[in-house]
Amino acid sequence: MCGILGSVNFDNTSEYLNLIQHRGPDASGIQSFDIGEHSVSLLHRRLSIVDLSEAGSQPMSACDNNASIIFNGEIYNHLELKKKLPHISFRGHSDTETIVNYLRHFSIVESLSCLNGIFALAYLDVQKKKLFLARDRFGVKPLYYYFDGNRLMFSSEIRPIKSYIKSAINRGVAFITLRMRYSPSPLTVFDEIKKVEPGQLISFDLCESVVKVSKEYFVKGERLGTRKDEFKKLVNIYGDLFESAVERQLMADVDIGILLSGGVDSALVAAIAQKRSAKKLKAFTIGFEGDHKEIDEISYARETAEILGLDHYDQKINFPNFLTSIKQIAQIVEEPIATTSIIPMYFLSQLAVSHVKVVLSGQGADEPLGGYNKYRALPYLEKIRFFRKISSPLDKIDFVYKNKEHLRRFLKAIQPEDLVSSWMEYCAISSQNYVANIVNPKTRKQGLNEMQQYQTLISEIWKSRTPNNSELKDLFLYYDLRTSLADDLLMYTDKITMNFGLECRVPILDNSLIAFIESLDSKYKYNSRKGKIIHKAFAQEYLPGSIINRKKIGFKSPTEIWFRENRNELENIFMHNSAFLTMFNQNKVREILNRHKEGENLEKQIFHLLSLNYLFNN
Predict the structure, then answer these.
(1) What CATH number is given for 2-158+193-217 in this structure?
(2) Is the model's pLDDT at 293 over the cut of 70?
(3) How far apart are CA 41 and CA 33, in angstroms?
(4) Residues 231-369+485-548, CATH architecture
């Protein structure tokens, strides 16, 4: 894991590279090229995980010196790919060296589709005068860029780009985040700064004086939910793939730990990792001071660690910890999100990095396997969508304020004719009316129009990326895996862990494992009563029922209570930011705080506003 930075026709120096030094505290490197009429710079900050020697340093050239790469991530099948390059004399054993030579000798799209791992990379083909940017298929590693027609800057994080071009908050995207709780790729909340989409390849042709750009997806969606077989046989296949995924991701020349919750996902990853590790693994858990038993996972995690024979470390945090860290966390994450689990992730990363350099996470199971409660209603939604017109009078009702968010989502998802729009409504944490009410009346009309244009853009992207002949019950999971997981949960996980120079791996998002899961008929994954069916069936080989059948807690923080008990402190934060109040209606912000204090649960909306608040004037 590392930090990458590069440019075409920008004066990109080590000053900007230092802004992402936290991502790679071990070493740095810079290469400059003159490609025709264009100047190209590749810059890199290294976190040494595989091949700690100089042979693993970047930027790295191919063996013939006609191509160069900067790469952030890990390719777990690189040794298999290396076997296809017997003519290459390798200097070291890093995955980077495999990749740059693999890209040099095979087509770019074919090569990227073969990479089983997590990555954001820039590959410069000096001979063909082309620069390529790519992001892994599930968007585990972020990659941002700014392109004005003939100048390009790209980076693992927004801050180097924003320092150069002084980008302002994009009002339309900010309004979208109020609904979706995150900025969907390729959008960011900053003007003219974009994200490479999960599974996307962007090519910059430098052959002529004007840079030409083309975009494509290097992974095509297969038809979903078609595979049926005897359940026990499918469980065995699932188990083999799961075990292989975890074993592959133990690849490292440094110690590896586990981010351990009280649930089945991280416990299963930990059980397999410990079985295949020569060392006793360390596990890390965050809890909360006070009476928060319903979301504090420490006792469960301790029990799991004891059963699996792990060294367990835990820490408890409180509201003062939250208050003193929230501004820094928002600035680390760089994009506004409404997901309160970024708070425990911050302290969890801080705890883990004092013991290890790499951690495995249980993230990624809920989306493809139907683990969230919201998926329980999908079988019903699919059956009654032909009643779309009866719900149209509900458009003007703001169910969020009536604490009926799930009902609002369900009813709104009935109405659209196309499944992408239905999915977007099903995922929206707030209604259009909520957005219209909370924003400043002076900017409301134009901002809402911009929001609608961006929503249409996102809808068109996912219509084009929808696998043929697939059904709602499979597609909603497919979309979530590549949107909310990528641009919310995985995004903040990357930013926070890498802020501490900690690499976080997600074995469940193994290419082969996910391909198998998505091929399965939904009945093996979830139904109206339960989720992760095949996952829990396999877990019985490693875990006792007490762990597998625990009630799902989720990775949360007690912000619902904290926000209720500290309402005045929150108002103080909002009302002293004049830039924030140019976009939002201060009376409506107070109203939200009051309604939450009186018993309604608006913690997501409040947390999202806090996140946006700290991005203003930053």
Answers:
(1) 3.60.20.10
(2) no
(3) 6
(4) 3-Layer(aba) Sandwich (3.40)
